[in-house]
Amino acid sequence: MSNLRFFDETNEDQNNQDLLPITGYESMPLVTLEKAVEPIEMFLYDLKDKVQRAKQNCRHLESSCLTQDEAAAIYIYTMEWAPVECCLYHLLNQTLRHRNRHELIPWFSYLKLLLTALFKLPSIKKTVWRGVKLNLQYPDSMKFAWWSFISCTESLTILESEAFLGKGH
């Protein structure tokens, strides 16, 4: 599989800095993963089967701080399938970056479930690495918002592996 999740930063640009904040999802009711993805099923092939696999793989997490649906919402976000451009994470991130915020409305129930799960996870303070295959230079005083979810790693060794950035970047 591709590591598209780690290399989609070219879709983030400074022109997106004037996007409006994402609002509306927070008022959605918290529902099951099956219900949360109903409005986006048309965008993702075979989503019902992927939801079942995610829930099956998360059934043992119910005793943690997350419900099975919350854990599965995170799990399905990380799943990759072919073609990679049709994965949930890719389509969601693309929509999060879009200037037309109305395109996010079908994603609101899923965002509510996903963000509820993420906010339940314990906060930790660590150094993480995010590599990009671009020469990005921002003034120190500039505040910069990346509107999509961004993948990072705790391991510089993993980031420098040939599967990701390599040592030449």
From TrEMBL:
<protein>
    <recommendedName>
        <fullName>Mono(ADP-ribosyl)transferase</fullName>
    </recommendedName>
</protein>
